[in-house]
UniProtKB/TrEMBL annotation, chains A, B:
Residues 6-180 form the MoaB/Mog domain. It comes from the Bacteria. This is CinA-like protein. The lineage of its organism: Bacteria, Bacillati, Actinomycetota, Actinomycetes, Mycobacteriales. It comes from Mycolicibacterium parafortuitum (Mycobacterium parafortuitum). Pfam families: CinA (PF02464), MoCF_biosynth (PF00994). InterPro entries: CinA (IPR050101), CinA-like_C (IPR036653), CinA_C (IPR008136), Competence-induced_CinA (IPR008135), MoaB/Mog-like_dom_sf (IPR036425), MoaB/Mog_dom (IPR001453). Belongs to the CinA family.
Length: 422, 422
């Protein structure tokens, strides 16, 4: 027995590629975690006939659960609830409690838009309080509620914006209707390992070797993925195969002890945050221009250890704000290890911090040379005890890739400096 | 008359979201350029039954053209050509000319992998020389050829890797079979309008009004989408309806002159970059902690006008690095308009810039109060002539939303300050 699902992503902006669909992949991950098999993802525009055709197609494929995203807004082109209602053969009815709830939310929002006629807006939002009769309602995160309509298949209707869809998912899964639809699922364990500094082909090689050495290897469902410059290895297995997974973990540990930094799924960001407890950090950024500081402050509570930083895009800023010696820049160039160290030392001093990280590099597309091509980035971590950990990397990709990848390298250099793993 | 198409994206790694599908959006763009209407994109794994079901679904929807991507490799899980052959009711036949061509390519590749048995590889690649009888063959870019099978619908089979699929597209479109399939295409115009500071429901209201006032309104295909706090309005219409679109534009301009900032699709980032030509900008960021600086330096050539910035996360940093008066913080709090102005003024001074933008706010989840709840953010733009443009916003969402949205508000405040639209 098993449970199978399909996903219908609606929205002309998504179909035409103007907005990248984040919901399909995100929901695919959630279904995988639940042990529900995903058969199809279908995308269509804001056209009722196309949405309905996709629902009928998935139903014809015998899925137990359909999840739709998008088309719940107040504008006339948002028609998903109406279409789902017809598909499920339910009447569309006004839910007065829901209408009042949406009115409350909208009235709160209105305070920020004094020029807009509140009555017109409330009328527009009334459309969002129309739900298929008998549906379970998922409270709005924005202004749009989700709905769950039990049946064969059960249909879960979620809003399009990922920041509304994602928080609503748990509530959807908790409904009786969804629980009944996915009752046949298989429970898997899932473990995540992360590595940094290993090419994908090196990992592929190790996995091929593991395949010949580990009995039962074929019962592990291993998926690997390169993201933000790190390798993520997700393994799914049935609980009775836990020992096989332990064998795999041992092989990876033995072979890649330096690159393997997480066996419990934690990100380098989590680890750096833990390592910075009780410390104070400052940043000095050139090519990443604030992205390292932004990443360090991503998490709640980071003000306890982040003092601040300097974005020293120009040489003058490096000299004036970070106290880098002009002669050092003259001698080695702004993109050099000595300048990276001077920037880190300057950040330590200026912010009275005990930890500092500096980046200086050539993100491109211009500015590269034969000796320092585009993608050359120097990093330095300085600690209050006078130690420096300094590296130069040549990062692949375009301007945005180089900047993004640089923040990851900076995080790993911080991790190594703070764990004494130099 | 018109021409309609569907896209079938195959591959378990794409369906499960481990690899992001780039082919659907890319092909969608190409179809839009050709004037072919795209009805559906469907994704499935490497399962023959699912691929065939999607082909039958699209045929049932009456599309003139189906484009598939993926599943053309030499391994056993790549089955697209076989499935398409069956779907089109053609025999699968070995094309000896194609087999020789693939053998040539593979022999060349082998030189780079000395450990591999060339005979085994050639046997595996023979599979790729099997094509539906009567199909037009598209020369391989990697080792996999594409095929075009004429019919109702005509099916174009392309490889999965974007760097192979994209160069093959023009050859596919040039075939007689595809030209016949898309003979009914219509050339559309597409225009993009962007607004900031208007809720989606306010726009919905205006569009409903426009519907009653503008003759031919129903011939405009309007899609609206909220992203990064901005409203994007994309309208597609046939060239003879240009006057109807002009009417719509006039209504939107009249009603939302303050919020409408782009009628040619340019982003606020483009506009700010243009406005900053010949100027020098510095940033002073608290809650956004480098995100405004990162956004300003996103584009190549930004070093011409970005001097740098300070991330003044702590009060000490605001005082020491930006020269904010400690008494000002004491009197008004760090999140206040006077402090935002002092931060902007400090950035102007410290970097010798003529334009500065400052942010200070409560991103949450902690730190809010009744007077200044989470989401309260103060912004100030300072110019060298002594003018300030200062605003306080209450932004919705979680920590990451508030920070992201703040960068958008900062960009728009910059735009207003630099255009004199206060």
């Amino acid at each position: 027995m098993s449970a199978r699902a399909g996903i219908v992503v609606t929205g002309t902006e998504v179909l035409t590629g103007r907005v990248r669909d984040l919901n399909g992949p995100w929901l695919a991950d959630r279904l995988l975690e639940l042990g529900v098999e995903l058969g199809h993802i279908t995308l269509c525009g804001d056209r009722p006939a196309d949405i309905e055709a996709q629902l009928r197609f998935l139903a014809g494929q015998g899925v137990d659960l359909i999840i739709t995203s998008g088309g719940l807004g107040p504008t006339a082109d948002d028609m998903t609830v109406e279409v789902v209602s017809r598909f499920c053969e339910r009447d569309l009815v006004l839910d007065p409690g829901l209408e009042a709830k949406i009115a409350d939310i909208v009235t709160g929002l209105m305070a920020r838009f004094p020029g807009v006629d509140p009555d017109a807006v409330l009328a527009a939002n009334r459309k969002q309080a129309l739900v298929p009769s008998g549906a379970e309602i998922l409270d709005p995160v924005g202004t749009a509620p989700g709905v769950v309509v039990a049946g064969a298949p059960t249909v879960v209707v979620l809003p399009g914006p990922p920041r509304e869809l994602q928080p609503m998912w748990d509530a959807a899964v908790a409904t009786d209707a969804v629980q009944r639809a996915i009752a046949g699922r298989v429970t898997y364990r899932q473990e995540t390992i992360r590595m940094f500094g290993l090419p994908e082909s090196g990992l592929a090689d190790t996995l091929r070797e593991a395949q010949t050495r580990i009995a039962g290897f074929e019962r592990l469902e291993i998926t690997t993925c390169l993201r933000r410059g790190e390798l993520e290895i997700v393994t799914r297995y049935e609980p009775h195969d836990a020992a096989v997974y332990s064998e795999l973990l041992k092989v990876l540990r033995d072979k890649h002890s330096r690159e393997l930094f997480s066996t419990d799924g934690t990100f380098v960001d989590d680890q750096v945050a833990t390592l910075l407890a009780g410390r104070t950090i400052a940043t000095a950024e050139s090519c990443t221009a604030g992205m390292v500081a932004a990443r360090l402050t991503d998490r709640p509570g980071s003000s306890a250890y982040v003092a601040g930083g300097v974005v020293s895009y120009s040489n003058e800023a490096k000299i004036e704000l970070l106290g880098v010696d002009a002669a050092l820049i003259e001698a080695h160039g702004a993109v050099s290890e000595p300048v990276a160290e001077a920037m880190a030392a300057g950040a330590l001093r200026r912010f009275g911090a005990d930890t500092a990280v500096a980046t200086t590099g050539i993100a491109g597309p211009g500015g590269g040379s034969e000796a320092k091509p585009v993608g050359t980035v120097c990093f330095s971590v300085a600690l209050a005890d006078g130690t420096f950990l300094t590296r130069t990397s040549r990062l692949p990709g375009n301007r945005s890739d180089v900047r993004e990848r640089s923040t990851t390298v900076a995080m790993h250099l911080l991790r190594r400096a703070l764990t004494g793993d130099r």
